[in-house]
Amino acid sequence: MNIIVCIKQVPAKDAPLAIAGNWIRESDIGFEMNEPDSFALEEALRLKEKHGGEVIALSMGPERVKQTIKEALAKGADRGIHIADDQFAQLDPLATANALAVAIKKENADLVLTGLQSDDHGFGQTGVLLAGVLDLPHATIIMQIEVADGRLKLKRELEAGWFQHIECPLPAVLSIQSGINKVRYATLKGIMAAKKKEIAVITRESLGAAAAPTQKIEKIYVPTKTKKTEFLTGSPKDVATKLVEKLKFEARVI
Amino acid sequence: MKILVITELRQGKWNNTSFETLAAAQQIAAETSSTVSGVVIGKGVSAFAGELAAKDVAEVLLVEHDLLEAYTPDGYSIALKQLIEQSKPDLVLFPHTYQVRDFAPKLAAMLGKGMIGDCIGYRNESGKLIFVRQMFQGKTAADVTFQGAGPWFASFQSGAFRADLVKPHAAGKAPINKISVELKPEQIRTKPLDLFKEAKSAVDLTQAPIIVSVGRGIKAPENIPQAEALAKAIGGEIAASRPICDEGWLPMERQIGSSGQTVAPKLYLALGISGAIQHVVGMKGARTIVAINKDQNAPIFEIADYGVVADIFEIMPALTEALEKAKT
Ligand SMILES: Cc1cc2nc3c(=O)[nH]c(=O)nc-3n(C[C@H](O)[C@H](O)[C@H](O)COP(=O)(O)OP(=O)(O)OC[C@H]3O[C@@H](n4cnc5c(N)ncnc54)[C@H](O)[C@@H]3O)c2cc1C
Ligand SMILES: Nc1ncnc2c1ncn2[C@@H]1O[C@H](COP(=O)(O)O)[C@@H](O)[C@H]1O
Fold this sequence. Notes:
The structure holds two protein chains of two kinds. Chain A is an alpha/beta fold. Chain A has one domain (2-207): 3-Layer(aba) Sandwich (Rossmann fold), CATH 3.40.50.620. Helix content of chain A is 30%, strand content 30%. Chain A has seven helices and 15 strands. A nine-stranded mixed beta sheet of chain A has the order 11-10-9-12-8-1-6-7-13, sandwiched between helices. Chain A has a two-stranded antiparallel sheet with strand order 2-5. The longest helix of chain A is centred in the first third of the chain and has 17 residues, at 35-51. Chain A is globular. By secondary structure, chain B is an alpha/beta fold. Chain B is 27% helix and 29% strand. Chain B has eight helices and 17 strands. Chain B is elongated, with a radius of gyration of 22 Å. The interface between A and B is large, with 76 and 95 residues. The complex binds flavin-adenine dinucleotide and adenosine monophosphate. Flavin-adenine dinucleotide sits between chains B (215-217, 241-243, 255-260, 272-274, 276, 278-279, 282, 293-295, 298, 311-313) and A (13, 116-117, 141).
């Protein structure tokens, strides 16, 4: 089974965000693999271990995303594809999906996996759009994948603790939810092996997938507070005493 | 403008966020002299169309087909595409449910359009609609506008608008118009099977007056007992954000948020929880919210009544002690 995993590189979880217009200043911060995508990668590696085939890590972004592709290769992906684009943060979800789809079409994949949502833009759309653009069946918020007789048996998460089983033919696009598995760490051996693995680089322009944007992020900003928060300061002991008093006599909840 | 609101039924009942979105649509319509049409989709759902017609809408569009009995992304997007082509709206609004995020972006793309998903509000700046959504896990908000011609697609996060503000129909009932759509079994590629719940809920957190909830700031399972000691001292139940339950550090039945439980205790203590929207929708109804987080910019502080910017490992023991002392 040949699997393409779409992996986005995003600012590190604890990176201080300096807002610059409709994006952030990228200098001085670290980047990492989008968390849901690391679960998608792990799922792809497990499926490959069970059913054979190849895992391809696909990422669009500036030069820095090569590092994340290398991490995927070190964990066991067979090769990488880098769609080079310095302006990718300005793309709307449909344009991102269009570009990824052209690269995916050139491969012979049985399964395309994405993360459910990116930690930076947080569109939560790319996987579903890919299915639309590629005209493939899809399912989202996936918490379990089994393959039997060329079909997928999936567990999909619903709201409030509910789940649903779904069957889906192959090829298909699945959006993977965080927590579906326990992700592996790259081993030293894996890191060494990754050095010999191929990363094909294509520019987004060369894919010819450009289309008029459907939406635009005008600006980003620190959200305004809806509640007036009273901050308690001092030593831990002071804070604890003050908080107990507030909860007892002001909020009257304990 | 003509605004379409796509309502959602879940297991034979209204998904109430449908009415939050209807309230948003009515508000946008009032500000932009637009009309609102409500859409009910499914099989054997005409009673729901009747209920919707009692709201302040210009009409209710009823889309029924045997193949729409159970939700499938193919069935819904093919049917709604035909509806949109027939009724020609300018703006199509959805509640941002798990079902909507499963098909709506694709529906928009089938019409060559885009969707602004998961909005928490909108602004009307002299007729131009600006949609507000979160980015960077709630650390920033973003103003987003549509580009190009409609129909435009947007979804509103649960809790963004108040369902109780939906206006009733002035004259009694709006007309119900049936829309016929063509669907063939072979167009529906996925097969929906059983719905089920996994966790046997031994604890009903919705009834707990006080909840002490831990997030990824707790770092390791060995540290959970510190939070449990605090919960005991304050007379509350322990709960957690999703990553903690994913890791198995606490059972899933203690997860708060959109995929876990929705609670409204009189006191919710958030320890090392960032305040991502999927968590917040499950607890923002709490009467008093206390957040302890070492990051002063953590979004959880936006909804906290009391905030402490500190290391939870310093505050938890001190607070447990202060609570014990206050008892004596
Ligand atoms: C469809 C979908 C459904 C989801 N459903 C849910 C759900 O039901 N419930 C849910 O909770 N999430 C849910 N999520 C996940 C959600 O988006 C967030 O990823 C999650 O809530 C983050 O959990 P957290 O706050 O514990 O972790 P993080 O976001 O990693 O935050 C950890 C916080 O701890 C602070 N911290 C770290 N160390 C310390 C310390 N020593 N002292 C003080 N503070 C510290 C950090 O500053 C940070 O703010 C869902 C996501 C999706 C896409
Ligand atoms: N630039 C990108 N490169 C590779 N994959 C991406 C990119 N953008 C989005 N994706 C994939 O789409 C998923 C959802 O992203 P989003 O729609 O931005 O929330 C991510 O988890 C990735 O799997």
